[in-house]
Specification:
Largest sheet: 6 strands, mixed
CATH class: Alpha Beta
Helix content: 25-40%
Shape: globular
Length: about 250
């Protein structure tokens, strides 16, 4: 399914956080959402899954205005992976992933074969099936993030939103997580800080600055030395990587 935003605004505490955003994520593609801290990335993701309500403008999921949908209807098609979450409860990996089936079940419904299949498929996708019985608190940071993604996949979503999924992970797990996300057969919007990782794994990039989209398109068109200087405040040299063929940024120090 496609994700589309048309002139979306959202303010908080008298400040305009999302300012007239128009954006399209084509079905089955991975869109990287970039921008400095405070540019509105996380707020935009929360608006798309209606954790926050749009104050003006329209957001559609698969052509349907989210204002006409219930939160339960949205949850059946759209999964949201927030930044690293923690819990003190002694819970297993399997129990965490089972939570992804909540939008598809009533409080009194029995566990069905389709629920079990969705959970098993999700664990397999993220390479955590052999650790399903492990307790959450025994996992590494990268493993916990894989479980978060598995929980989202168990929702069997058509759209997947991820807010800084590689935050606080070492480089191996950053690469593993983004390679996994880019292979998923769903429409993804992923907020990232690392421009080189975004260039490697995303089909298109949208750059936010002060609540607005200031650039959109393929990485090689969006990531220019001028944009990096104007939006991120750093000087850089950009070349095409001989390894993966995407653009690669080398930052300059003063």
């Amino acid at each position: 399914m496609s994700i589309s935003l048309e002139k979306v605004h959202w303010a908080s505490g008298g400040s305009l956080i999302v300012n007239g955003v128009t954006l399209d994520a084509a079905p089955g593609t991975t869109l990287g959402l970039l921008g400095p801290n405070g540019s509105g990335k996380s707020s935009l993701l929360r608006l798309i899954c209606r954790i926050r309500k749009v104050q003006s403008g329209v957001i559609t999921l698969g052509g349907e205005d989210i204002a006409t949908l219930s939160q339960a209807q949205i949850a059946k098609s759209t999964a949201f992976v927030e930044q690293q979450a923690t819990t003190e409860i002694q819970v297993s990996v399997l129990d965490v992933v089972k939570l992804g089936r909540t939008p598809h079940r009533s409080p009194i419904s029995i566990w069905k074969s389709e629920d079990e299949a969705a959970v098993q498929d999700a664990l397999t996708h993220v390479g955590m099936l052999d650790k399903a019985s492990r307790f959450w608190h025994t996992l590494s940071g990268g493993e916990k993030q894989r479980v978060h993604i598995a929980r989202a996949l168990a929702q069997t979503p058509s759209q997947l939103l991820l807010d800084e999924p590689t935050n606080h992970l070492d480089i191996q797990h950053q690469l593993d997580i983004l390679a996994l996300v880019s292979r998923l057969p769903v429409t993804c919007i992923v907020a990232l800080h690392d421009l080189n990782l975004a260039a490697m794994f995303c089909d298109n990039l949208a750059v936010m600055h002060a609540g607005e989209i200031v650039a959109f398109g393929p990485p090689e068109q969006v990531l220019t030395e001028t944009l990096i200087r104007d939006v991120f405040g750093v000087s850089a040299h950009i070349e095409r990587s001989s390894y993966h063929g995407r653009c690669h940024i080398q930052y300059k120090t003063a």
